[in-house]
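REVIEWER CHECKLIST
Item 1: Sequence provided? yes
Item 2: Single chain? yes
Item 3: Sequence as submitted:
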Amino acid sequence: MAASLMKVGETRVWINPEEIEKVESAITKEEVRRLIHEGVIAARAERGISRGRYKVRLQKKTGKGSGSKKGSRGRGKSGWVTKIRPLRTRLRELKTKRVITREVYRRLLPMAKGGAFRSISHLNEYLESHNLARRR
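Item 4: Structure as written out by the authors:
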Protein backbone atom coordinates (compact mmCIF):
# COMPACT_ATOMS: atom_id res chain seq x y z
CA MET A 1 0.00 0.00 0.00
CA ALA A 2 2.87 2.39 0.89
CA ALA A 3 4.56 1.65 -2.44
CA SER A 4 1.45 2.59 -4.42
CA LEU A 5 0.97 5.78 -2.37
CA MET A 6 4.58 6.90 -2.92
CA LYS A 7 4.49 5.69 -6.55
CA VAL A 8 7.63 3.52 -6.17
CA GLY A 9 8.38 -0.21 -6.37
CA GLU A 10 7.95 -2.44 -3.31
CA THR A 11 11.71 -2.96 -3.02
CA ARG A 12 12.23 0.79 -2.59
CA VAL A 13 9.94 1.10 0.45
CA TRP A 14 11.93 1.59 3.66
CA ILE A 15 10.33 1.07 7.06
CA ASN A 16 12.00 2.33 10.24
CA PRO A 17 12.94 -0.86 12.17
CA GLU A 18 12.35 0.86 15.53
CA GLU A 19 8.70 1.61 14.73
CA ILE A 20 7.55 -1.63 13.10
CA GLU A 21 4.64 -1.99 15.59
CA LYS A 22 3.12 1.31 14.37
CA VAL A 23 3.36 0.14 10.75
CA GLU A 24 1.82 -3.26 11.55
CA SER A 25 -1.15 -1.58 13.24
CA ALA A 26 -1.79 0.76 10.26
CA ILE A 27 -4.69 -0.59 8.23
CA THR A 28 -6.14 2.27 6.22
CA LYS A 29 -4.55 4.39 3.51
CA GLU A 30 -4.92 7.46 5.68
CA GLU A 31 -2.84 5.87 8.46
CA VAL A 32 -0.12 4.85 6.00
CA ARG A 33 -0.09 8.41 4.58
CA ARG A 34 0.43 9.75 8.10
CA LEU A 35 3.36 7.35 8.67
CA ILE A 36 4.93 8.48 5.38
CA HIS A 37 4.52 12.11 6.47
CA GLU A 38 6.13 11.37 9.84
CA GLY A 39 9.08 9.64 8.15
CA VAL A 40 8.45 6.18 9.56
CA ILE A 41 7.98 4.92 5.99
CA ALA A 42 10.18 6.39 3.27
CA ALA A 43 11.23 5.70 -0.31
CA ARG A 44 14.82 4.60 -0.91
CA ALA A 45 16.86 6.40 -3.58
CA GLU A 46 16.73 5.02 -7.09
CA ARG A 47 19.67 2.83 -8.01
CA GLY A 48 21.43 3.46 -11.31
CA ILE A 49 23.03 0.90 -13.60
CA SER A 50 26.42 -0.16 -12.31
CA ARG A 51 29.36 0.70 -14.54
CA GLY A 52 31.75 -1.55 -12.60
CA ARG A 53 31.75 -4.38 -15.13
CA TYR A 54 32.17 -1.92 -17.97
CA LYS A 55 35.19 -0.30 -16.29
CA VAL A 56 36.89 -3.67 -15.84
CA ARG A 57 36.30 -4.51 -19.49
CA LEU A 58 37.65 -1.11 -20.53
CA GLN A 59 40.88 -1.71 -18.59
CA LYS A 60 41.39 -4.99 -20.42
CA LYS A 61 41.21 -3.22 -23.76
CA THR A 62 44.67 -1.65 -23.49
CA GLY A 63 45.76 0.90 -26.03
CA LYS A 64 42.22 1.75 -27.15
CA GLY A 65 41.27 4.85 -25.15
CA SER A 66 41.68 8.41 -26.36
CA GLY A 67 44.46 8.92 -23.80
CA SER A 68 46.75 6.46 -25.57
CA LYS A 69 46.55 8.07 -29.01
CA LYS A 70 49.60 10.02 -30.10
CA GLY A 71 50.12 12.58 -32.85
CA SER A 72 47.75 14.80 -34.73
CA ARG A 73 44.66 13.53 -36.49
CA GLY A 74 45.81 14.84 -39.86
CA ARG A 75 43.84 17.04 -42.21
CA GLY A 76 41.79 14.41 -43.98
CA LYS A 77 40.84 14.83 -47.61
CA SER A 78 41.57 18.55 -47.81
CA GLY A 79 45.12 17.93 -46.57
CA TRP A 80 45.58 15.20 -49.15
CA VAL A 81 44.33 17.45 -51.95
CA THR A 82 46.66 20.31 -50.96
CA LYS A 83 49.57 17.86 -51.04
CA ILE A 84 48.83 15.88 -54.23
CA ARG A 85 47.91 18.78 -56.55
CA PRO A 86 51.32 20.53 -56.42
CA LEU A 87 53.10 17.18 -56.79
CA ARG A 88 51.15 16.30 -59.94
CA THR A 89 51.65 19.80 -61.31
CA ARG A 90 55.41 19.56 -60.67
CA LEU A 91 55.61 16.17 -62.39
CA ARG A 92 53.72 17.56 -65.39
CA GLU A 93 56.11 20.55 -65.56
CA LEU A 94 59.15 18.29 -65.45
CA LYS A 95 57.71 16.15 -68.25
CA THR A 96 56.85 19.13 -70.50
CA LYS A 97 60.30 20.71 -69.91
CA ARG A 98 61.74 17.27 -70.77
CA VAL A 99 63.64 17.08 -67.47
CA ILE A 100 62.20 13.58 -66.96
CA THR A 101 61.18 11.04 -69.59
CA ARG A 102 57.65 9.84 -70.19
CA GLU A 103 58.54 6.47 -68.65
CA VAL A 104 59.86 8.10 -65.47
CA TYR A 105 56.74 10.31 -65.32
CA ARG A 106 54.53 7.21 -65.63
CA ARG A 107 56.47 5.52 -62.81
CA LEU A 108 56.42 8.53 -60.46
CA LEU A 109 52.72 9.40 -60.88
CA PRO A 110 51.40 6.28 -59.06
CA MET A 111 54.13 6.71 -56.45
CA ALA A 112 52.84 10.22 -55.72
CA LYS A 113 49.31 8.86 -55.51
CA GLY A 114 50.49 6.19 -53.08
CA GLY A 115 51.92 8.83 -50.75
CA ALA A 116 55.60 8.19 -51.46
CA PHE A 117 56.44 11.91 -51.45
CA ARG A 118 55.77 14.34 -48.61
CA SER A 119 56.32 17.48 -50.65
CA ILE A 120 57.77 18.89 -53.87
CA SER A 121 61.20 19.19 -52.25
CA HIS A 122 61.00 15.53 -51.28
CA LEU A 123 60.13 14.66 -54.89
CA ASN A 124 63.10 16.68 -56.19
CA GLU A 125 65.35 14.98 -53.65
CA TYR A 126 64.13 11.58 -54.87
CA LEU A 127 64.85 12.50 -58.50
CA GLU A 128 68.41 13.56 -57.60
CA SER A 129 69.20 10.55 -55.45
CA HIS A 130 67.93 8.06 -58.09
CA ASN A 131 69.45 9.95 -61.06
CA LEU A 132 66.12 10.18 -62.87
CA ALA A 133 66.53 13.76 -64.08
CA ARG A 134 68.11 14.17 -67.56
CA ARG A 135 71.46 15.87 -67.86
CA ARG A 136 71.44 19.07 -69.93
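Item 5: Key structural point noted by reviewer: The longest helix spans residues 76-96.
Item 6: Recommendation: ____
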